[in-house]
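Hi L.,

As promised, ABC transporter permease:
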Amino acid sequence: MLFRVAGARDQKLGAADCRLQVDNKPDSCVTTDSEKFGEFDRGASGLLKRIALSNEFGLFALIVIAVLVFASLASGFLSNFNLYLLGRIIAVNAMIGFSMMVVLVTGGLNLAVGAIGVCVAMTCGWLIEDIGLPWYLAMLLAIGVGAGLGAINGFGVVWSGLHSFIVTLATMSIFFGGMIFLTRAESFREMPELFTEFSRLKFFGILSAMLIPTVIVAVLLGALYHFTRIGKEMLAAGAQAAAAEQSGLRVSRLFVMCHALSGAVAGCAGLMLLARNGAAIPAMAGNLGQDWLLIAFLGPVLGGTLLLGGQVSVLGAVLGAALVSILSNGLLLVQVGEFWVQACLGLMLLLAVVLDKFRRSFVQT
C-alpha cells in the first residue's frame, strides 16, 4: 500500500443544486440503471488500471519473471530447502529495509543502520552470556539500546543542523568503534538453544519462522502510517518540512522519533541475524556495518518510498527486498561470481534512484 500526503480535489454537487437542476432539466441528476452500470464498469476498470500501473504490481511481476527464469536455469531453485533459505534471507533484508524506510519518510538517511544492528546484537549477546539475563529480557534491553542510538542520530541532526547523511556517516564509525572497544572485538557464542531454534523453525516445509517478526513489523508500520496521527505527521514533515512547521507540527521531535524508530528496527534485524548465526559477531554486518547499506536502500526505494520523503510503501519495501533476495540467490545458484552479484545490486540501486526521480516528478504534477 502506498501512503502519501495529498490534498482533496473532489468536489460534490450539493443536494439543493441537484434539486434545482432536476426541476429545470429532469434528466440531469437522474441516472438510469444502465448509466449506473456504466459508472460501475468505468470505476472497476479504473481500479484495475491503477493496480496494473502501481509500483507494487510491477515489482510482483518482476518477482514472478525472476522466479520463472531461475527455476529454468537452476534445478534446485524451487527446492524446499532453497525456498526455506529464501524466506530467511527475505525476512532479514526486509527488516533492514524497514530500518532505512522509516527515516526516508522524513527525507532523511541513516547510514548507521548496520552499525546499530551489530551493536544491538552484541549487546544482547553480552547480556545473555556475561550478565546471565534471560534471552527475552536481553532482547528487549538490546532493542532499547538500538532506539537510543537512533535517537542520538536524530538529536545530532536536529542540534547540528547538518544533513543526516553527514551525521549518520560519522555515527556509523563512532558506534561501531565504540562497540569494538567495549567488547574487545570478542564474539558471544553461548546463546540459548530456544533462541537459535526459532530461526530454524519452518512451516509447511518451506516457510521460515523468521518471516513472523518481519510480517509483524510490516503490519505495525502500515498501521502507523495509515491510521495514526503521528504517522501522518511524519509523512507531512517529509513532504514539506517548512510548511509542516508553520502549521504547528514539531518537526524536530518527529525527526528524532523517526531515527529512534529506525534504530529499534535495525536492532530487530540485528537480533534476527544473531538468532540465524547462533552467535554475536562484530563482523556480522561487515566492516562498520557497511554490508547493510545497499540492502537498506534497495528495498524501500524500489518499493516506492521517495528519497526526499513524504511517500512510503510498506508492501513495496517487502516486495523490493524479495526481488533483491531472489536475484542474489538465483545468480549464486547459476554460479555467477559474488562480485558480479554485487555489481548487479549496484546497478539496481542506480535504477531505483532513477525511478525515484520519475516518481517525484509524477507526485509533483
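The chain is about 75% helix and 5% strand.

Thanks again for sending the construct details.

K.
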